[in-house]
Amino acid sequence: MGNCESSTHDKQIHPLKDEPVNLQNRGIPSSGDSLQSPPPHVFDSIKGGQAFSLEPASLTNPSETINTSDWSNVKDALNRNRQIEEQIMKDHRKLEKVIKLLLLGPAESGKSTILKQIKIIHLHGFSMADLAEKKPLIFRNIYESIIQLIKGAHSLGFELPANLQADIDTFCLFFNDYQFGDQMEFPKTMYPVVKRIWANERIKEVYVQRSDVYVMDCAKYFLENIDRICSESYIPITSDVLYSRQQTVGVSEIRYNYKDLEFRIFDVGGQKNQRRKWIHLFDNVTSIVSAFLF
Ligand SMILES: Nc1nc2c(ncn2[C@@H]2O[C@H](COP(=O)(O)OP(=O)(O)O)[C@@H](O)[C@H]2O)c(=O)[nH]1
Ligand SMILES: [Mg+2]
């Protein structure tokens, strides 16, 4: 292999032949012009025998000499290379401003609640439509709470007064037929039944002992607000939405900007069978926020 020199002078040594090459004679302007002799790293790459993607075919074939179109191809390739490098740098700078947070923790530890709170703080909260559409979910939370309290009383061996049994039977019959849908009114017949069941002290005791039996955290909040929730003009308020409990299926994401950073927060299903849906989110994650039950 012949001499290789990197220089901005007009005369260059052909990298593969030992003959000097006059770049100006080949229509290549000298330094200071926009079309300069090829930068040193072109020759370096040839010398090192690598990065041949930047070279015109003639450079790899010693029998051919360099012509203007070869250098023009080199220049094009270098331009493309520079553009790609600039784009990579831009993407990198952009990525540095993206903060990816993954919320992890057991079911009902508050992951989805954190997401709702972020929506309130950073994304203008809930619209009237958002609030109204939570009605069926809130009603379902109340029905499920009552069933859990009744089951809990049985599991804990609590004796319930005989006069409550009729209400319990009525409610269980109703719940057996109940199907979750877009129910926008709390059933009038169930309102006094639910009220009487929750008014019972033994039932309230089940809620206190919910570390031993499963009762949703939101039970007390909704049952204490039953009069407001069962009123005809009921529209959920923000705290109702915060307390509402819906099992997360799959992954939900919220994005917001704070200062010049873009936050992307991922809320995932806590159940084991949901985990394969979010395991890939660990790629490039900035932080993991763990939620715990206390
Ligand atoms: N005690 C209490 N419970 C809350 C509060 N906010 C939300 N919760 C309840 O905490 C539970 C958290 O559920 P969720 O956020 O869906 O948990 P995830 O499964 O980790 O997404 C729900 O039952 C909510 O009703 C609060 O301020 N106090
Ligand atoms: Mg959730």
Structural class: alpha/beta
Strand content range: 5-15%
Provide the number of structural domains: 3
Please tally the helical runs, counting DSSP H or I stretches of 4 or more residues: 13
Radius of gyration: 35 Å
User: Quick one: biggest sheet?
Assistant: 4 strands, mixed
Report the bound ligands by name, code or SMILES.
guanosine-5'-diphosphate, magnesium ion
**CATH fold title of the largest domain:** GI Alpha 1, domain 2-like
Give the helix proportion (percent range). Answer: 40-55%
Mean pLDDT: 79
Q: Say how many strands there are.
A: 6
CATH level 1 name of the largest domain: Mainly Alpha
How would you sum up the global shape?
elongated
Q: What is the strand arrangement across the widest sheet? A: 4-5-3-6
- In whole angstroms, how far apart are the ends? 74 Å
Element-by-element helix/strand order: EEHHHEHHHHHHHHHEEHE
